[in-house]
Automatic annotation (TrEMBL):
<feature type="domain" description="4Fe-4S ferredoxin-type">
    <location>
        <begin position="219"/>
        <end position="250"/>
    </location>
</feature>
<dbReference type="InterPro" id="IPR017900">
    <property type="entry name" value="4Fe4S_Fe_S_CS"/>
</dbReference>
<dbReference type="InterPro" id="IPR009051">
    <property type="entry name" value="Helical_ferredxn"/>
</dbReference>
<keyword id="KW-0411">Iron-sulfur</keyword>
<feature type="domain" description="4Fe-4S ferredoxin-type">
    <location>
        <begin position="301"/>
        <end position="329"/>
    </location>
</feature>
<dbReference type="GO" id="GO:0051536">
    <property type="term" value="F:iron-sulfur cluster binding"/>
</dbReference>
<dbReference type="Pfam" id="PF17179">
    <property type="entry name" value="Fer4_22"/>
</dbReference>
<keyword id="KW-0408">Iron</keyword>
<keyword id="KW-0479">Metal-binding</keyword>
<dbReference type="GO" id="GO:0046872">
    <property type="term" value="F:metal ion binding"/>
</dbReference>
<dbReference type="InterPro" id="IPR014259">
    <property type="entry name" value="Sulphite_reductase_A"/>
</dbReference>
<protein>
    <submittedName>
        <fullName>Anaerobic sulfite reductase subunit A</fullName>
    </submittedName>
</protein>
<dbReference type="InterPro" id="IPR017896">
    <property type="entry name" value="4Fe4S_Fe-S-bd"/>
</dbReference>
Length: 344
């Protein structure tokens, strides 16, 4: 892929979106007026769009892009007494608009579903093969973001088709996918070298631990979350790197021989996630669940793959109804680690 830069007037960029819509489904953050969690509040969440004006380029999305790849509920196959039929998917390619932190999150999703074992996840791969990405530049940091300290504020080495920044009523795009060159050239105001905008500073800061002593796993620091956390799982569902799911069989007949199997998003923070046969349940306390989630995001995943799972998007901090700050938890782990090390 080469790199060419283009400047568009709003009408020209809208033409680009209209042209691309003929070949791609375009999935982007959209401002949903009055559809927020509280009365008369708005929310920014992903949806399919047809025009450039529908894309929310200014506000941070409250939910991540990941539902295009890992739907909340996904039918894998249908079954009868004699046959099994794989579910169909939309065969059209998809262009997903996302920011640098989420493009870095994609790397984490691919790691889990495609490179975490002897075989890739078939149902994830068949969707992933049809998805391309558009990098939305960040002119400034957003509330609760800590992407700089997580090293996910830039996406220079990641794969995206083109970038887009809205500056002074002009759309600035860096094109990397030569397949789209004609569409861009025919509608641009002019060509110009373009570099996507990236955040360089966050108001929220985290210090990551270099290593974590075993005593952290049994520390009393987790006990406060037994009462503070309510186990709603919102932090998991807005997180772009949470990948856990469960399986559900839906039966159409009383004999249980006709129905469908679904993969459904699950959450390590909600009741029932660790239930096992015989009535056993691991991590009953919310503090234990918080420890599990935290260690997975900043320790376990990195120990296995060499980089942290958390990308510092800050959505978990924003969405928590109990005002629990994950960035603060990271700093608590680091402080406790240093305290233990200094005692030796």
């Amino acid at each position: 892929m080469g790199k060419r830069g283009y400047i568009f007037l709003p009408g020209g960029f809208n033409k680009v979106i209209e042209e691309l819509s003929k070949s791609y489904r375009i999935y982007a953050p959209v401002l949903k007026v009055g559809e927020g969690r509280f009365t008369d509040t708005d929310v920014v969440r992903y949806d399919f769009v047809k025009e450039a004006s529908e894309i929310e380029l200014d506000k941070k999305s409250d939910y991540s892009f990941k539902e295009i790849l890992t739907p909340l509920s996904q039918t894998l196959f249908f079954f009868t007494e004699n046959d099994v039929k794989e579910s169909e998917i939309d065969e059209r390619e998809v262009l997903v608009f996302l920011r640098s932190c989420d493009l870095n999150a994609l790397k984490r999703l691919d790691q889990i579903y495609l490179h975490n074992g002897r075989e890739e996840d078939y149902f994830y791969a068949r969707i992933r093969d049809k998805v391309k990405f558009v990098l939305m530049g960040c002119a400034h940091s957003y509330e609760d973001c800590f992407c700089v300290d997580m090293g996910t504020n830039r996406a220079d080495d990641l794969d995206y088709s083109f970038s887009v920044d809205y500056i002074d009523n002009r759309f600035h795009c860096q094109l990397k996918d030569s397949v789209l060159e004609d569409v861009f050239t025919n509608n641009a105001l002019k060509e110009q070298d373009i570099t996507p905008r990236f955040v360089t500073e966050n108001e929220t800061r985290v210090q990551l631990p270099d290593s974590v002593p075993l005593s952290i796993f049994t520390s009393d620091m987790w006990e406060e979350y037994n009462t503070r956390c309510i186990g709603c799982g919102r932090c998991n569902y807005v997180c772009p790197t949470c990948t856990c799911y469960t399986m559900q069989d839906v039966y159409y007949t009383d004999n249980g021989r006709v129905g469908e199997r679904r993969r459904v998003n699950a959450s390590c923070m909600v009741d029932g996630y660790t239930n096992v046969a015989g009535g056993g349940e691991y991590r009953k306390k919310y503090g234990e669940r918080m420890r599990f989630k935290t260690m997975h995001k900043i320790y376990d995943f990195k120990k296995r793959f060499g980089y942290n799972m958390c990308v510092g998007c800050g959505r978990c901090d924003t969405v928590c109804p109990e005002y629990i700050s994950f960035s603060n938890i990271i700093n608590k782990v680091t402080a406790k680690t240093l305290e233990v090390q200094n005692e030796k």
